[in-house]
Amino acid sequence: MANLMLQIIAYEEKTMASGCTVFSVAYLTKNGKAEKAIFQNVSGSIDMIYGNCKEVKNIREFIKEYNEDK
Length: 70
Description:
By secondary structure, the chain is an alpha+beta fold. The protein has helices spanning 45-52, 59-69; strands at residues 7-15, 21-28, 34-40, 54-55.
């Protein structure tokens, strides 16, 4: 199994009715485009995400705008 490191550039945090925290993130692919990934209650998610990127209100809109600028 290969190690996977994502360069996360933005995130959107939501707490679901069940209490589950969901992070939708924008990460950079090898070709420099942004793509979306989702983390749910992953140990260490908060530290990983908060340290290197900004919070956005709408991750899909952020990705669309980011990719249009490239």
